[in-house]
Amino acid sequence: MFINVETMIMDTLKNAGKPLKTGEISDLTGIDKKEVSKGLKGLKVQDKIISPKNCYYSIK
Fold first, then answer.
1. Cα–Cα distance for residue pair 8/31, rounded to 1 Å
2. 1.10.10.10, 3.30.365.10, 3.40.50.300, 1.10.3720.10: which CATH number matches 5-59?
3. Sheet of strand 49-50, all strands in order from the earlier edge strand to the far edge
4. What is the pTM (predicted TM-score) of this model?
5. Low-confidence residues of the chain: pLDDT under 70
6. Angle between helices 22-29 and 33-45 (to 10 degrees)
7. HSE-up of 53 (CA within 13 Å, CB side)?
8. C-alpha–C-alpha distance, residues 51 and 2, integer Å
């Protein structure tokens, strides 16, 4: 079963209940940091996440 990176990032942010850094998302999902960065960029363009402070991400 294939789960896309953006879905995994969204699930991780929902379950965390607090803003996370790229490295923390990478550690929790097991996805490479570069792939997490690409996924975050896509989610930001889709307006699904926000960055409440520099380098931290949270669901909208």
1. 9
2. 1.10.10.10
3. 20-21, 56-59, 49-50
4. 0.90
5. 1-2
6. 110
7. 4
8. 27
